[in-house]
């Protein structure tokens, strides 16, 4: 799907922070616009205090980059901007440069549905400094949100033990685009359907839904409302039973279910949207079974998230389909992932690559320098460790050490020859041309499910998960420490 053209009908080049444009102008003005650079997009901490994160948003990223150009209306707007003295913010030759710019970057990224970890690059951009800089804000906007929602959905899917999840957060989502991106990402994370019809049309996600309380209230009686709905949709009857009295609503659903059965149709189930879901679902299950409807599903909803679902599971609630909305599509308990986009290398005038380091009083904010990639090692189909390594570094197949970038005392010895390995960053764009075959959304969803299955259950605990080993290859660790110490000396005037 061509997201930019289908949804917005125009360029999205101005979907950026103003300082990206002022820096781009500064690069151009100082003759650095075409200097080659490498940026990495990564996050520093798992969301939701979890033990894993699921990458999403790559298809949006591809579409954005394929349509990355400044149109006449964009340039006219930039030309209208003034400085405090009334002079133009950007001179005409710079705007001409923007109008003639062609996207030429290389982009490597992890595939959607991949389980990822802090400090490892999700996206690596290599190309002219000018273009790399302009991509920062839109790529963060795309990857941050969809990765966050896919991760939330994956956690909910783990809590339901793989039972169907209907995503119906459209009315509570953060605007139109937020709703569409959330529906897509939630499906990647394991949801089975969405209530969002436009998302169904655009992305091919199965849509689901029956009726609301207003349907019941518009009739004289609940029974009459159920009968009318059964007449309209005899093959799609899930009755919402808690408008007035939940258990009486179950009785009325059973009555209409018997009428449907006499006509050769079958009631699909009921939905409970309020009250004590464990108690009412168990009572409803008893009533449905006794009435001869053991296959009727019980849908549970009402501000659910992974923690409430886990609690309901521990109470042996008889819910087997889950409706999740607000707390999924808004990532209610952590509304931002916090991924960042940092310069890691720049090409000098002599043509050599210079690794770049950013210092901070907070060690978590010191970036990883150089042009690096990630290898995941598997043993008997299970992921055992991720190694961040310099791409030009030859890895010893017999023995290598990975070192935690946040705590160098945490180390793990690996014997790569005994493992199956996967390089996580895949080539997406080469010299501005898309060379990646985008999978279908169902294939992406299947990848996400398979990825989670490859990790030990201790890493997937919703509370206090076991930390999965991720570390820098020894040479990269030493390079990073050398650059940190050198930068600190310069900062202190010692060199």
TrEMBL record:
Keyword Glycosyltransferase on entry: yes
Domain (Nicotinate/nicotinamide phosphoribosyltransferase): residue spans on this chain: 165-350
Record keywords: Glycosyltransferase, Ligase, Phosphoprotein, Pyridine nucleotide biosynthesis, Transferase
Free-text function comment from the UniProt entry: Catalyzes the first step in the biosynthesis of NAD from nicotinic acid, the ATP-dependent synthesis of beta-nicotinate D-ribonucleotide from nicotinate and 5-phospho-D-ribose 1-phosphate.
Protein name, per record: Nicotinate phosphoribosyltransferase
Keyword flag Phosphoprotein: yes
Domain Nicotinate phosphoribosyltransferase N-terminal: 14-144
